[in-house]
Amino acid sequence: MRFIKACLGEVVDTTPVWLMRQAGRYLPEYQELRRQADFWTICHTPGLAALATLQPMERYDLDAAIIFSDILIPVEAMGVPVEFEPAPRLPAPIRTREQAMALRTPDPATATGFVLEAMAKVRARLDQGKALIGFAGAPFTVVAYMVEGEGARDFIQLKTLMYRDPLLIEDLLARVSAFTAAYLSAQIDAGANAVQLFDSWAGILSPEDYRHFALPWARQVVRQARRLGVPVIYFMNGVGGVAEVLSEVGADVIGVDHRVSLADAIRRIGPNTVVQGNLDPGVLLGPVGLVRARAFEVVQAGMAAKGHIFNLGHGVHKDTPVESVGVLVEAVHESGRRGQ
Amino acid sequence: MRFIKACLGEVVDTTPVWLMRQAGRYLPEYQELRRQADFWTICHTPGLAALATLQPMERYDLDAAIIFSDILIPVEAMGVPVEFEPAPRLPAPIRTREQAMALRTPDPATATGFVLEAMAKVRARLDQGKALIGFAGAPFTVVAYMVEGEGARDFIQLKTLMYRDPLLIEDLLARVSAFTAAYLSAQIDAGANAVQLFDSWAGILSPEDYRHFALPWARQVVRQARRLGVPVIYFMNGVGGVAEVLSEVGADVIGVDHRVSLADAIRRIGPNTVVQGNLDPGVLLGPVGLVRARAFEVVQAGMAAKGHIFNLGHGVHKDTPVESVGVLVEAVHESGRRGQ
Question: What is the ipTM of this complex?
């Protein structure tokens, strides 16, 4: 698999490409699916999750599928109710020791069997040359959600607890790390060829707090997942302030958002790390000529790294024209070949 | 004035300090004022804006006051209605040439006379050793608001236009730059001892787009304001990806958010620039011992720069205990002296 080779820094015929949120609302076939079932129902129904996962693979020559799921699935599995209105919200956020102690660390095979079943279905139907990526939220990001109860700009509930009761936050991080490692392990057993850890909210932290509350826990989960023999990708939204320490996470691949230039990121992360990224998803709203030109630039910049997997710096936006994604995937493969 | 000396890189007896949103909802006296008038009314009433500006100056030994106002005041002055519900929203965002051409570039003395009057009142009542800071949004940030109609996470309307009709965006940037320069000039005439340009939304851009759509316009406004003989501060929220190019803005002082370490920022921006920042505002929600310790670290890191003005990396949060702000201001002045 081209994607797996690139993750390991091996020579590939061209730059592999997949896109965060490649299965989603910009696709008319996904919109159609959503008329039959809501987002959370699709996540919980193996047949539908597998269908959503495969939709972009049928339309585009993407090198990897990522299982259609959500980083809040493990939160629910640990016993915390999740609601959608339509943004996700936890009606009972975790802010006390009693609540922390009541969290479950269940067997992923039973608590998240529907995800594993979806993965097995996808792996069985996916072309052998294409990879299946499993994923989970990184411990800090999951704990941020658990404590705050929703995505927020300043995460003030979380920070208040982080500074007033760091031991409680560390206890939560330890519990979430344990379940996350087990959950990723189960995904690998179910057929994942690689796993990605999303530290979507770690970018709200100062570098000092990042090194304390995010990095060590991500590293622990990465270490456990890597023992199972598949490449591990670590994506943090907002690497600009901490690029120099990211190699300490120990992942095979470091995802890079679009608020840094890929050339700078490679230099700052270090030349011995494979990078993934980092086109601004907004570019896909522009004319296809611009999509091709910017894709070419990112592919060229990626050549300076030990290895490069093309992706966006963040998820595909719902207003993205479906044709532009096709143009992008072709442009990446073509630019990657030209550069060889 | 200690603050102005520090802006110019001159020797000061201790590190000066002011805080973004130091006048605001965490203060009970401001809450009291808000029971009499809403935010937008306070902005438009010179006596009330002056009162709000001076409230934190009476409570704390801050080195500078910043005029109580909003970056949307120039948007309104240019003829675009602004509503609050309670977040600011433009009912008719600017997305066409016709709308752009209909924008006014009025005389700030008439269109924003209430701000200038508030500034004169504050300057007359402020201790002579304390500076008064005027401000405006940087052109990119103001245009982002005008086009999007509200603060947003991905600014997809803006990016669509940026990529599909860059000339329209540049036309808007030119118009906003012209008015912003005139507006800052009027503030300096009215008594501002320094001005700050807030590029609050520039952090959503890739470095390539930042260099095209944000930096040159900020530089143009900075250059015009500096000709009037007062120091200019440029604050961008999210410097992590573009620190190396920030000196090109040409400001006397570069503001730094808290998602980078101040030591790294100084190294990356370059040693010949005065920096302002960058304590995480969330730390003020923690115990006062932590506030003191983190303030000390930031002050120490600032010693590596040509000059340092202490500030938060973002605005004071509304849940901040009033006592903690007092502890912070004292800790900065004490740490700054100890380090001399």
Answer: 0.93
